[in-house]
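tool_call predict_complex ligand=nicotinamide-adenine-dinucleotide
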Amino acid sequence: MSSPPPVPDAAGPSGPGVEGPAFAGRASVPPPRNDENLTYLPGSPERTALKARLADMAGTPIEIPAVIGGRDVRSGVLHQVVMPHAHRHVLATWHAAEPQHVEEAVTAAALARREWASWSPEDRCAVFLRAAALLTGPWRATLNAATMLGQSKTVFQAEIDAASELIDFFRFNPFYAQQIYAQQPGSSPAVWNRLEYRPLEGFVYAVTPFNFTSIAGNLPTAPAMMGNTVIWKPAASAMLSAYYILRLLEAAGLPPGVINLVPGDPEAISSALLASRELAGVHFTGSTSVFDRLWRTVGEHISGYSAYPRLVGETGGKDFIVAHASADVQALAVAIVRGAFEYQGQKCSAVSRIYVPASLWPGVRDRVVAMMRELQIGDVADFRTFCGAVIDRKAFAKISGYIDDARANARIVQGGAARDGEGYFIEPTLVETDDPGYRLMREEIFGPVVTAFVYPDRAWPEILATVDTTSPYALTGAVFATDRQAVRAAQAGLRYAAGNFYVNDKPTGAVVGQQPFGGGRRSGTNDKAGSGMNLLRWVSARAVKETFVPPLDYRYPHMSES
Ligand code: NAD
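tool_result ok
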């Protein structure tokens, strides 16, 4: 979109219940600042508050309803939320939505839309800015504790996700929304041109993954901020934090029906919603195969929609670190350990393939192995823990299968143990292969397993080509080098290999407002969550030309002979 200088905005108040143009008002969104991570040092107030909330949440199972049109809906079809690191410990039971509830959600979203779409952007944004403020303070321990217990995140991993990143989404998106509304066309004398950023017609379907509470919070709220109403299907394995996100939004003043929480059978819910004439968009994060499926279903129904739905999906990754012979060995080793094993490798950005020159490999390997031997694995309520458990039995079986494959077809340098008696624990694992096309170098594992390929130092151009072409994904990647020519070559050779590219840093930990996140190729539509690029997908612009003095004669001047 071109962005000519903004013209003064036109105030367009709309009566309650009447959908009207959502022109920006005169207020400016407070300039957003990234939330500062708390330290949770021994003796700190935040540590005391969090420990108390953890004990309380672990000891008091709750019942989670669907929430449709602001109403708690209890279907009686119950499922359990357990701790991945203590899978016999039940944290909650939740009610799965039945087909009639899905229909009710479509109706509730349509009803709520009439009112919500008429709110000024300032009023809508205020809800999310208030949610950010609540999460900064009184809700912080709740969202962190739910993420630690329900998704097995350590205190630091929960803090950077459920608190800081979600706060950042709630603070930065209003700021980006304001920038979008301010982009207005030029006008000629006696003509006023305006762009009206209308919410989409219909509802947005948000489908969220288990691994980031912040993503679960962002996918329904980003379209809502732009005036849409949403039906949100969270991941079953992240139900506890999803439920508290919804309660937080209610506490912040989100009107009933703007975001409808509809947990349940993903296939049944998706096939009902994707067949709806009112589907206006899909906001998805999860695996590539599921997004393919959603897209295909939308394709099958394409002639039945009232408008072409917007499809935004951030999907899988096979993220890399490629090291040049000039790399700093210690920095590289730390980046591998943090990048591959934090949150048990269950980040879409987690390092899972590394390319190291032969001259550096012994030093890198030994340092990585030494650090891996120190990593504490276990209960995340013990703050010394570095790795919790993987999310569920299915993930445990899948990751264990890859480790078995490595045992047979490659070399396990460190780790490899897996035990699921108490919790779904997988030891951080370093594999070495001589085959750069080995499946552990190509396929997304989504667990604490990283595979190394050692290349001859002189083969730098060739290894860049290998990195670029080995996997179908292009989410994140990093180059480690102190030689600037090598950095330049990597940036050029890997231009399309990652949507988030890092130089001398691990390829995880993107920060809202600093490294807009998303990948290309089979990693998604790269609409960059937490940026204006993403928000633009949730509006449909109307150009309005108003002529103040319309012509009164059909003839043009050149038609006169005299
Ligand atoms: P998943 O694909 O299993 O599930 C994601 C969501 O889709 C969940 O809500 C799930 O219930 C739903 N779902 C599952 N099967 C479905 C079906 N048949 N029809 C409709 N919906 C269905 O992914 P996950 O295990 O929750 O998360 C891990 C995946 O997400 C990894 O592939 C990871 O790379 C990806 N991810 C990507 C990003 C990114 O920004 N690119 C961020 C986080 C996670």
